[in-house]
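batch job 7 of whatever, protein = Exodeoxyribonuclease 7 large subunit
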Amino acid sequence: MKIRALSVTELNKYIKRTLDIDPILSSLTVIGEVSNYKLHSSGHTYFTLKDEDSKINCVLFSRDASHNTLNLENGQSVKVKGYISVYPRDGKYQLYVKEIESNGIGTLYEKFEFLKNELKKRGYFDSSLKKEIPEFPKKIAVITSPTGSAIRDIINVIKRRTKRSDILVIPVRVQGKESSVEIVNAIKTANSLSDIDLIILARGGGSIEELWSFNEENVAVEIFKSSIPVISGVGHETDFTIADLVSDLRAPTPSAAAELAVKNEIMLIDELHSLYLSIKNQIKRNLYSKRSEIKYYSKEQLLKNVSEKINIASLEIDSYYDKVKLINTFKLNDYRNTLNSAIALMNALNPLELLGKGYVITEKNNLLINSVKMLKNKDTICIKYIDGIANCEVRKIEEGENYGK
């Protein structure tokens, strides 16, 4: 039987009817890991369900989402119930989800968390070990796919912002089994070159499995070992990889990585020019101000000012002199009082003063006699009075009270 030619719409509708009546595809349960999760403004939820080898696009309509309380997120392992059908406009089959429940943590998410924790323990994310990004790199090595949009965006941004930085593209595959090895070798190549100042590691957005090369341990180790600073620009703003955490600086996109790598030369020139004009105008204002001051101070005015300053200084000197004189007078009086007190004390203790009160000084052989025990009969002693001396001979010695008590 010969079948007439079908239009594309007729073909897609036929495939849809065929799938819709299949007893298995019309009601099935599938287990997989969530990626590319997106909640549309309409309330519909779109995501990819995948395992290690395959993936299928899924949609959860808002009317069914209201009956499901599970909060979906990328990396989550889920069990979904629904049916397979074709959206005729696009000719793509997908899984229409009716019910969804958690099935634990996804395999890739589990691997990601495990490696992240291990590398954190080793200090791979330590901010104190991050290398400083050079302000004006002369040559930048860009490690990315040579055919993706990331390399075009990076080159365009760098060339637009500066003419002083050369770009070396080291092409690698950014997804697939061998891609992580190529990325590692590219980082080694960049470090072997003596003229590379900075490395940009980049690729466009994608699902967690598409970005998985940047979650491999060998890539993380090579980034950490690199003696050249590394900026990572992997995926979109919401994507985070192990490479982002290990790199010296993380950019949300490849274009942002290029912006962080080089300064905007035009803006710098404009800023320098503005600064130059500001300094120039300030110098002009200062010169004008000083010229005005010079004109104001004529010869007569200068002499007057000098004379005033001399007069003020003379008054100050007189004031200081009076203060010093007053201070010296006070000090001299203090010294005089102190001296008089000392003289009075010395006079009070002077033995000659005691003689005037009827006391005498007794000596024998020029030695002061202060006890009768120092004398014996017929000793010649010298008795000193206030107005003369008497030489006497001891006739009798009598010991008695101690009059000095």
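notes: The first helix runs from residue 8 to 20.
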